């Protein structure tokens, strides 16, 4: 099979967004309207979601020290195996 190597005629913005900006804006507006309606039907509020996210971030920052210490321990334990194996493999490939 041959590949089509013609340059993409779309602008950089269109390639980044995946569609024409106005078409994407209309699609996002309609999806937002639908999701907003569903959230209202089920009793969710955007302010509650933002408040919940900020509370979650605050809890992670307050209690997250233990999580980060545990992650550091996992990284060091894994590195004790991974780094020597990587060095040996690099030395073997260098031959």
Describe the fold and architecture.
With 95 residues, the protein is mainly alpha-helical. The protein folds into 2 domains: 11-44; 46-95. 80% of the residues lie in helices and 0% in strands. It is built from 3 helices and no strands. The longest helix is centred in the last third of the chain and has 49 residues, at 46-94. The radius of gyration is 25 Å and the shape is flat.
Number of strands: 0
Shape: flat
Strand content: under 5%
Number of domains: 2
C-alpha termini separation: 38 Å
Unreliable residue runs: none
Approximately how much helix is present in the residues?
over 70%
The description of the largest β-sheet is: none
Mean pLDDT: 82
What is the gyration radius calculated from CA atoms? Answer: 25 Å
- Summed up, the helix count is 3
SSE pattern, N- to C-terminal: HHH
Please state the oligomeric state of the protein chains shown. Answer: single chain
SS-derived structural category: mainly alpha
